[in-house]
C-alpha cells in the first residue's frame, strides 16, 4: 500500500449507524429487522435513473459527485432499503489510473489494448488518492444525506478486473484469462498484485470518506476451480480486504461472486465478514458449507422478480427461512437487478422482508 | 411417444463393443483403461474440420450423411479417443420439425420468432422419424466405420432447447426463459413436454440406427436453483432418458450441463447412468454428492489446454485420481473443446489418460 493511502484517516460517522440493521447483521449481532438491499439497485431499472443519466456516458456519470449522489440515493428513497451502494463501475479505478477503456452500451467494458505481457504493466500505474478526489467528494456528499443508513463502498476484485483487461471485454468462458494464469503465473501474480493495490485504494478512499461497509465484487471468479482460486487469486483478494481492515477494522467486508458454490469457504477465508451467495446455493446449504462462521448475503433469484406476487412472496419467505440458519443474514438478490425489472416488484420484496417471515 | 418411434427396432451392434472401455466405465464395470473423449472434439479446433466445412453452413453440414460421417470420425482418427460423438447441433431437431432458425457464426442459434404464447406451440410440431431419415443414414455409415469404438448419440435437453426458443438466441442469464417458467408454469410444461418428445425422438433414431450410448446435453440448466430444476425441468429430462431406456436398456445414458454443482444428484435421478461434471466440482466431491451411485464423466478445465505440458499433465493426473473415487470414470473436459485449442495438446491428454495415473 502506498504511503499516501496509509495516511488516510477515517471521517467521523453518524452515531445513528450504531443501530443500523445491515451493520448488525454483518457483525453477526441481532438486527431490529432483516436488512435488505439489491445489487445494482441504482441503475437502468429505475425511470428516475434513466432521466438523470440521459445523454451522459456511464464512465462520466461515475465521476460527477452530484450525479453519483443523486443516483446512489434514488433506490434508498424509492424502496426504503437498508443500505446505499456507492454508484460506480468496476472499471472506474482502471480508467482513473489511465487505462484506455470505455463502456459500450449493450456490451460492457471494452479495453483498447488487452493485457498480454510484462510491458503492459506499465500501462496500469498504481492508484493514488489524488486520481480519485471526486470519489471522496461523492462519498462525503452521500454520507451527509444518508444519516443513519449505511453506505456500502464498491470495488471490483483483482481477478474480475484482470479478466476484463486480459479478455479485452466481457467473455463467457474467460479462456484467455485462465490461459495467462496457467502459462505465466509470475506475470499473472504481478498483474493481480497491481490490481489489488488499485482495488484496495479505491475502497480505502471510500471508507476514509465515510463508507461504513464495503463489498468486493469478484463477479466472474466462479469460472475457476477451487484449487486455482486458492493458488492464483485468493492472496490478492485477501490483500484488498486486509487493506480495508487495516484502515478501519470496524467496517464489515462483504465478498461476492456468481457461480461460486464451490468457492464459498475460500472466499470467506480471504478475509470477509459476509459471504455473498448467488441464487444457485440455498442459504442454509451455503451456511453449512461455510461452517457457520460467516454472515451471508443473498440470494433471491432475480428472475423471480418477473413472477406473480404470490410466487415472489413465497420465494422471499423461503429465502428468509434459509437465511435464518446463518449467524447473520443480509437479504439481497443472488445477482444484480435486471434492467427490465419492475421497481414495484422490488418495493414489494423490501416490504415483505421488513414484514418478516410469517 | 408417437407410434412411429415406438416401432423403431435396434440394429445389431458390433460384437467388439462388448469390451469397449467407455461402455464398461458407464456400466460401472472395470474398463481395460480409463476411456476418454472430448465434448466438441469434432469441430473448429481441427484443421481437417475447417477444410471439409469450408463454404457449408453449419446446419446444412449436419444433414449430409457423408460429411457428418467424416467430421465425426476425424477426432477418432487423430486422437484415438474411446468414443465418437455424433456430429450435430442442439437445434437440428428443432429445424427438422420446421422451426425457423439459423446458426449465425460467432453468435450461435438465432430463432426468427421467439416462443411467447400457447399459439407458438403450433410452430413446434412433434418430430417424426421421416423428418430425420438422414440422421439414421449418418449413424449407419458411422457405426459401420467405427467397429468396436462406441458412437455416442447426441441431443439437447428440453430446458436448453427451450432457452434458445424463448430467448431467441444465446443469453447470459436466461431471464426470459426463467420468467416464462415462473409466470406461466402450464405453458412452460407444455413447451417442455413437446421438446421432450423431440429430444427423445432424435436420440431414439440414433440408438435404433446403432449408437451404443447417448449424451443428453442440458448445457444451460445450471442457471436454475435446485428446487426449480426439480419442479420445472427434471420430469421432462427424465421422460427423454426413459424413452431411450424403453428402446434399449443396455444403452448408457450420460447427462451433462455446466454450472450444475448443486444439481448433480437431481440430474442423476432423472435417469442417467453417468453424470457429466463441469470443471468447477472435483470428481471426488461430485461422487460424494452423488452418493457413489453413478459413473461420472469429466472434468479437466478446458483452459488448461493452454498451459505447459507439465501443468497439463499434472492436471490430467489429478483428474484421474479424483475420478478413481467414482464407481466408473469417463475422462473428458469439464466443457467443450475451445476452438483455439491446439490438437497436439488434446492428443497429449489422450495419451496421458491411456498411460494411466502413475
List keywords for this structure.
two-stranded antiparallel sheet, globular, homodimer, seven-stranded parallel beta sheet, 45% helix, TIM Barrel, alpha/beta, 358 residues
Structural class of chain A: alpha/beta
Count of spatially separate domains of chain A:
1
CATH class call of chain A: Alpha Beta
Q: Using CB atoms under 8 Å apart, which protein chain pair has the greatest interface?
A: A-B, 34 and 34 residues
CATH architecture of chain A: Alpha-Beta Barrel
| Total count of strands of chain A | 9
What oligomeric state best describes the polypeptide chains here?
homodimer
**What portion of the residues of chain A fall into strands of 2 or more residues?**
5-15%
Number of helical stretches of at least 4 residues of chain A: 16
CA-based shape of chain A: globular
SSE pattern of chain A: HHHHHEHEEHEHHHEHHEHEHEHEH
- Mean pLDDT of chain A, to the nearest integer, reads 95
The rounded distance between the terminal residues' Cα atoms of chain A is 48 Å
Uncertain residue ranges of chain A:
none
Looking across the biggest beta sheet of chain A, what order are the strands in? Answer: 1-4-5-6-7-8-9
The major sheet of chain A is characterized as:
7 strands, parallel
CATH topology-level fold name of chain A: TIM Barrel
